[in-house]
Amino acid sequence: MIMDITSLILALFIVYCFCQCLSSANNTITSGQYITDPHTLISPNSVFKLGFFSPQNSSNRYLGIWYLSDSNVIWVANRNQPLKTSSSGTVQISEDGNLVVLDSNKRVVWSSNVTHNIATNSTAKLLETGNLVLIDDATGESMWESFRHPCHALVPKMKLSITQKTYEKVRITSWRSPSDPSLGYYSATLERPNIPEVFYWINETQPYYRTGPWNGQIFIGSPQMSRGYLYGWNMMNDEDDGTVYLSYNLPSQSYFAVMTLNPQGHPTIEWWRDRKLVWREVLQGNSCDRYGHCGAFGSCNWQSSPICNCLSGYKPKYVEEWNRKNWTSGCVRSEPLQCGEQTNGSEVSKDGFLRLENMKVSDFVQRLDCLEDECRAQCLENCSCVAYAYDNGIGCMVWSGDLIDIQKFSSGGIDLYIRVPPSESELEKHSDKRRHKIILIPVGITIGMVALAGCVCLSRKWTAKSIGKINSQRQGMNEDQKQVKLNDHLPFFSFEELVNATNNFHSANELGKGGFGSVYKGQLKDGHEIAVKRLSKTSGQGLEECMNEVLVISRLQHRNLVRLLGCCIEQEENMLVYEYMPNKSLDVILFDPAKKQDLDWPKRFNIIEGISRGLLYLHRDSRIKIIHRDLKVSNILLDGELNPKISDFGMAKIFGGNDMQANTRRVVGTFGYMPPEYAFQGLVSEKLDVFGFGVLLLEIISGRKISSCFDHDQSLSLLGFAWKLWNEKDIQSLIDPEISNPNNVNDIVRCIHIGLLCSQELAKERPLMATVVSMLNSEIVDLPPPLNPAFIKRQIVSCADSSQQNHITQSINNVTVTGIQGR
């Protein structure tokens, strides 16, 4: 019995000593202590760990720090010297006071490598921020920190920095691959300490992206920083040594965020709340984001074709290369600058400036200490100054060399003023005058006509009634035409042109019929194919919708919106001319048993993504915020490659910049695509289009119309049928057999989930389109469970042939609801 007690005491003593070897505290290693694989240090808040891990598809072992689990590694020590054998690594304080990693043969494979003022007695501590620090026991000062030697990730409190005197930089570098954390090909640094911006590099020497200068709140060349989850960046300046620091702060302790540079060179944002991943986004740019893609004095616009164009006053340096879309050589001046005033008779000419809006400004900026009014004059007085810009947070910016890496944004950016010779400057002035004349002449004519009409009324009252209707029709037509010209400078087609283009609107050229008329295929004299929307003369709403569509869509430009080429308002005809879509509308293919075979899952998902991007542009990224109000399958046109284009903006509503919701007493739309708050209360918001998108998504996946009948008593709508199958965990029955492939099921079910989220009954529960786009791209990993959708039960019991348009008018709360059953 005594021997048993002695053995027990001895065993407890050994365990105690072993624990002492591990650490005197759970988050520290002191001199003489160590940890071995698979043991870890844990931060005081229990969210970070330091220990050995293996990346996916690899047996190599690395010492790293991770958040919650080793799938979220934020720092790696021995990234270029892995341990080949599991459970062979040791972390300890060396005799010279450095933190080291040893292999099974006690050879050093990594060291903190502090050589200056190193203390022999030191302690390594994992802080609650995830920072691993090496502390001098005597002074308590930090000798080394993992935050000063980052790997591929930036976390809150970590700093990117650059020192102005020595140009010493803190650099983050991507992994070589998901299974290999060694130094990759891509890195990011803070540059230009006077006006700091972040650069992304290939092999540390070749820039491939820059954020634009920091203005105290955002990098002005990165419009995506306006998104809420990217707020929190701060720039600090140490005036003693000229070091500039960029860091990120969290809104509260319940949040955590990490930005990593992935092996492909794309920044990736991950956002946690209450230790649960709620958002993930890979910031993949387009060709215009590539550094200097259009060369010197070239401007890149992703939404134009071609995407590269020379700035005004410049021409391609090598025309043949430029025409072959090799834009790297850039542009040169087509006419030299004058620099200074020149007198030609009584006229004095000098250089001027051309304003470019929503621009990413050029690299190699210089800052002048002057106010906005003086900035232009300072640039004009300097013959080497080729452009200037002014930002309230930065001040006056000027450029004296080549303008490189300029980009045109759909929104965001700032105004950039390009120096042009007097001839270009005068053209701009004449253009302004011409615009003023265009406005003044019709106004004068209108006033004259009103005066003349008054005289006629006084002298010939007896003829007023007989000619009043004719004059009002003509005057109304003229005023509509003037309004279009004044507001949008939209090209006008003559009635004769469109008659010839469509073979006198021959029935063989009819592409389809809509609520306000027919659409015809046409061909102009130059061979260009067009689609002509001819509004019916019997439609009481046709002209209003026509004018609304002109005023809305002529201001928009996006690859997923149909392009308006012009209009015709002549001889009591109202016609809109669009780009021709060879594959007509989505419903023509989707609901045809033979044609739908061409719509495999990748094509359908491309259509879904395209529609979502088009809606996001309308809601957030265009110059004006627009709610479509009639999103449906027949209003999605398909080009030759089955890329979707949102069409029919006759019912669209324009919002002010800060408006989130509006009321309308005229509720128009299509039955099945309207949410209840709009149909019954006339409430218009982004969530109206989100609901329509959700219905569209379910139609695309199921291959069935929203007007179809389901269930034994035909009482369920498509939404109700999808909801029923979702709750019964039989969602496979909703999927169109044409795309029901085991390889696609997970992606399809995720899209059905998103469709149900978009079509929830309560508007507040539906996501915004920005969130929907991120959900579709799997940037948001965990989707919330959907609540019940609206209109589960069919509002129309009859299952008539859906090719017949059923116009439904309801009077609910004094709101007229005009609906058209889905085609």
TrEMBL record:
The name this protein goes by in its record: Receptor-like serine/threonine-protein kinase
Reactions catalysed, as given in the entry: L-seryl-[protein] + ATP = O-phospho-L-seryl-[protein] + ADP + H(+); L-threonyl-[protein] + ATP = O-phospho-L-threonyl-[protein] + ADP + H(+)
UniProt record, GO biological process: immune response; recognition of pollen; signal transduction
Cross-referenced SMART domains: B_lectin, PAN_AP, S_TKc
InterPro entries: Bulb-type_lectin_dom, Bulb-type_lectin_dom_sf, Kinase-like_dom_sf, Pan_app, Prot_kinase_dom, Protein_kinase_ATP_BS, S_locus_glycoprot_dom, Ser-Thr/Tyr_kinase_cat_dom
Signal peptide positions on this chain: 1-19
UniProt EC number: 2.7.11.1
Domain Apple span(s) in chain numbering: 339-421
Domain Bulb-type lectin: 26-147
GO CC annotation: plasma membrane
Family: Belongs to the protein kinase superfamily. Ser/Thr protein kinase family.
Binding site for ATP: K533
Keyword DNA-binding: no
Molecular function terms, GO-annotated: ATP binding; protein serine/threonine kinase activity
Sequence ranges assigned to domain Protein kinase in this UniProt record: 505-756
Top-rank taxon, per record: Eukaryota
EC top class, as a word: transferase
Keywords: ATP-binding, Cell membrane, Disulfide bond, Glycoprotein, Kinase, Membrane, Nucleotide-binding, Serine/threonine-protein kinase, Signal, Transferase
Pfam families xref list: B_lectin (PF01453), PAN_2 (PF08276), PK_Tyr_Ser-Thr (PF07714), S_locus_glycop (PF00954)
Gene3D superfamilies per the UniProt record, alphabetical: Bulb-type lectin domain, Phosphorylase Kinase, domain 1, Transferase(Phosphotransferase) domain 1
Organism: Glycine max (Soybean)
Subcellular location, record wording: Cell membrane
